[in-house]
Amino acid sequence: MTAMNKIHFSKMTGKLDGLQAVSTNTVTNDFCKKRYEEAKVKNEKAGKVVDICGVCYSQTMLATYRKNMQNALQRNSDLLSTTILPYEDLDNLLVAFLRIDAHGELINETHLINIVNLAKKNPHCAIALWTKRTDLVKPYFSKNEKPANLILIYSNPKVGTIMAKPPRFFDRTFNNVLEDEHVEKQNCTGQKCKDCMLCYTLNNGVDTIVEKVKKY
Hints:
By secondary structure, the protein is α/β, with parallel strands linked by helices. 28% of the residues lie in helices and 16% in strands. It has one domain.
């Protein structure tokens, strides 16, 4: 594979400082675009944020002050969603933890298969995938084994509603609440991922992650 046809790994900053991620282009993802527009309408009708997709940080960033990221993320979108990459061409990861989709979302089954194969090739690396796409995850893993090092986190779109039990094949849920909601249950608030690592560790007894978001 040429350099242009290799997966792009992003070095993260801010809350995700110290981690690497494989992300895709949110603003060209049909699933994301539809959810974003529908959720904005829901939020407007409710007079408050009830669906996190309607205030998507990625849509805002990639359309404005981080617009320069789109080319690299679009290469990932095209590469990961159009063909199953040869196993021998997948990267040997030199990291212990990897995030999938700090930006973006699963595009199709081909995208999911490529992530699964990346996990299989790197059993030493805990690969955490945040997704809302149960429509892809459930059918695929009903017929295929999930790698032990692939951590599936269901990204709950409903703000203020904590989903305690993960959907089938998922390891935990990630939930958003407003600052004054469920304060005692917020366990992803005020720290960087590298100082917590709940999401990146299996069998730690925690299957529900709750983060506060600012009031919009």
